[in-house]
Specification:
Oligomer: single chain
Strand content: under 5%
Number of helices: 6
Order of helices and strands: HHHHHH
Shape: elongated
Number of strands: 0
């Protein structure tokens, strides 16, 4: 029963979080691009703030569930390695965010804090739109990394049922 609960929790939390991250990319970036950059950057800062309080914790929870499943799986079994990959995949959004997304995110945040002057200094409207599109692509990739981890966890859970 404990194994089933961890499987359901890890897989569902992983997929729901991945879906939310991907949906943000495809729903918010077009809206940001349709508004003046100063307004978009202000809202993007709010999005960064709220997302930083939700998504890392959910990814950590899914990864923890898969880690416990890996720990309780038979030693050196394919199942153990599958759960290890699932755990690494679901928490993989953290290093991706820090190493790949942070420069774009920080640039957008700093420009937004400076308002119109920051937009001018950054290279203008076109540069902001380029950065917003880049953020959307990177955020979708981040969601995909999480979804891959959840997918491996689902595969492991289903293979255990056979």
């Amino acid at each position: 029963m404990q194994t089933l609960s961890l499987q359901v929790f890890g897989v569902s939390t992983g997929f729901v979080t991945a879906g939310a991250i991907i949906a943000l990319s495809y729903s918010t970036v077009p809206v940001f691009l349709s508004h003046p950059n100063e307004v978009s950057l202000r809202h993007l800062r709010a999005l960064f703030s709220s997302g930083s309080h939700i998504f890392p914790q959910l990814a950590t929870a899914a990864s923890t569930a898969f880690s416990v499943l890996a720990y309780t799986a038979p030693p050196a079994s394919p199942l153990r390695y599958q759960y290890i990959v699932a755990a690494a995949g679901t928490i993989g959004i953290a290093p991706f965010t820090i190493l790949v997304m942070k420069p774009t995110n920080m640039t957008l945040k700093e420009i937004g804090e400076q308002g119109n002057e920051g937009i001018k200094k950054s290279g203008g409207e076109q540069r902001i739109e380029e950065l917003l599109r880049r953020f959307g692509r990177l955020n979708a990739i981040r969601g995909g990394i999480l979804a891959m981890g959840a997918g491996v966890g689902l595969y492991a859970a289903l293979s255990q049922r056979n």
